[in-house]
Write a structure and sequence with these properties.
Two copies of one chain form a homodimer. Chain A is built from no helices and eight strands. Chain A is mainly beta and 131 residues long. The first copy, chain A, has a single domain, classed as YaeB-like (Elongation Factor Tu (Ef-tu), domain 3).
Chain lengths: 131, 131
């Protein structure tokens, strides 16, 4: 099955960094800008991205590369070393500028292909006061 | 970018149903069974699957097919009518039997390809009493 980028990550991370405070821009391809309609009302979104610098698949890993935590299966971890190189992170949506979403907390390197974006909460559960 | 199934959904849903109460089996390919190691300690998991019966892409949709809710962009919805046909659902993990995970609440039809599985909570935040 073929998947294609809907956009790319733009940030200052060329290697592992303090992801929680990192601000990133999600630059969405112009042909998909209409798909962002009203997303700015969402306080949090899920970003699905492709680990384009992942190279190997391991069936057992230490969670968070922390060797003090015993190994678990890769599907019980968020490690990039998985059969399909997909990452999913819930991020704070700070601002939308046309086809660009400004987010906080994305753990993806500069240039990472974005595969999909989904709301983190349901519309009927959205607390408007949050935004 | 190419993605491949790690397994398939087995359940009674040949069409839309009451997903919240539906029990499904995630039948993982034998070569990936080791990647499930210790996943049974997780009370909830994320299932990433492929909408293999989706046919069209729409940039604006009514959330949950509910016409009483005004249209939003597809990336502000969970609709299958998206550029990459990926669905993500958090489900309750009831049981693991070797390469089979028994889950509750998956909104995917019988035979749906499974692309990935991830923990819904971090290992260091796992409340062992939940399971």
């Amino acid at each position: 099955m073929e998947i294609n980028p809907i956009g790319f990550v733009r940030n200052s991370a060329e290697e592992k960094t303090d992801w929680e405070t990192l601000i990133s821009e999600l630059v969405i391809l112009p042909e998909y800008e209409e798909g962002l309609y009203r997303i700015e009302e969402m306080p949090e979104i899920l970003v699905i991205f492709y680990f384009d610098r992942a190279e190997e698949i391991k069936m057992r890993v230490h969670p968070k590369h922390d060797h003090s935590i015993p190994k678990v299966g890769v599907f019980a971890s968020r490690s990039p070393t998985r059969p399909n190189f997909l990452g999913i992170t819930k991020v704070r949506l700070l601002e939308r500028r046309a086809n660009i979403l400004v987010v906080k907390g994305l753990d993806a390197l500069n240039g990472t292909p974005i595969i999909d974006i989904k709301p983190a909460v349901r519309w009927d559960q959205l607390d408007k006061s949050e935004k």
